[in-house]
Amino acid sequence: GLPFDNGTAITALRTDVLKEAGMTVDDFTDITWSDFIAKGKQVLAKTGKPLLSGQAGSSDLIMMMLQSAGASLFDEAGNPTISGNEALMKSIDVYQQLVKSGVMVEVNSWDEYIGSFVNSNVAGTINGVWILGSIQTAKDQSGKWEITNLPKLDGVAGATNYSANGGSSWAISSNANYDLAADFLNKTFAGSTELYETILPSSGALANWLPMADSTVYAEPQEFFGGQPVFAQVVGYSKQVPKNNTGAYYYEGRDAVSAAITKILNGTDPTTALDEAQKNVEFAMK
């Protein structure tokens, strides 16, 4: 297999909307989630726009919060650590505050999520750097976006302003012509700076291939993002992302947490919901 795109997380914000609220991206750099929510309320009051949107039932944002503190759903031995997980409880509490304050709106599908910022219904998004490709489909918004790092969890040991979401790898299937496929990968995604330099600006496909770190394209100002050298910034962020444990049952863990979030937002006690999630993952692992 071959690691492909980088999943380092970013906060992307509409600078024109922030300006209307008397703010800039600097006001959202190196801050905590409590700061973010307070400033998001101001933006909402002055512009009518929430800062964020997210797909209802998705645990993406909570997983980014969790990793930003170097925390996980599993320990190093692969055992689930959902019950009594301080960083997870704090992440869910922040998520509740985001939704209840109106700073974040939940939507029903991925298409609606993309449409929420492409159609200017919200003033930003937090996701892996690959989301920049979707942001740039709104050609009329060129020059009106900038990026920064993530808010960090208040009062959680090891909390940082850096995280990741997603990323991908190329793999050669067992029924493929191995030599041909390996040669193709060696000449493209594991061997061509020209390829990455071509696809990077429009797709946000930030490479995990180490020789690309020396590419001058990374340092080029991107007009769409207000002249920021966004890819150089993201490379800097990537070096500060805390490690976390995933394991063979990572997606079972995510699904269990997603179900718990929905229950919590509908009034279930958080401890009860997470204890149930823990039991569901333990059952899946038997």
What structural keywords apply?
three-stranded antiparallel β-sheet, 286 residues, 11 helices, 42% helix, 7 strands, globular, mainly alpha, two-stranded antiparallel ribbon, D-Maltodextrin-Binding Protein, domain 2
Question: How would you describe what is shown here?
Answer:
It is a single chain. Helix 2 (33-47) packs parallel to helix 4 and helix 3 (60-68) crosses helix 4 (86-101). The chain has helices at 15-20, 33-47, 60-68, 86-101, 110-118, 132-135, 178-187, 193-203, 230-238, 250-265, 270-284, and strands spanning 2-3, 9-14, 52-55, 104-107, 124-128, 145-148, 169-170. It has 286 residues and is mostly helical. It has a single domain (2-166, 243-284), classed as 3-Layer(aba) Sandwich (D-Maltodextrin-Binding Protein, domain 2). It has 11 helices and 7 strands.
Shape: globular
Low-confidence residue ranges = none
- Count the beta strands: 7
Radius of gyration: 20 Å
Largest sheet, order of strands side by side? Answer: 5-2-6
- Give the CATH architecture: 3-Layer(aba) Sandwich
Overall average pLDDT: 93
Percent strand equals 5-15%
Report the CATH C-level class: Alpha Beta
Helicity range of the residues? 40-55%
Helix-strand string: EEHHEHHEHEHEEHHHHH
Biggest β-sheet: count, sense, barrel?
Answer: 3 strands, antiparallel
CATH H-tier superfamily: Periplasmic binding protein-like II
Assign the structural class, choosing from mainly alpha, mainly beta, alpha/beta, alpha+beta, or little secondary structure.
Answer: mainly alpha
Distance between the termini: 29 Å
Q: What's the number of structural domains? A: 1
- CATH T-level fold name: D-Maltodextrin-Binding Protein, domain 2
Number of helices: 11
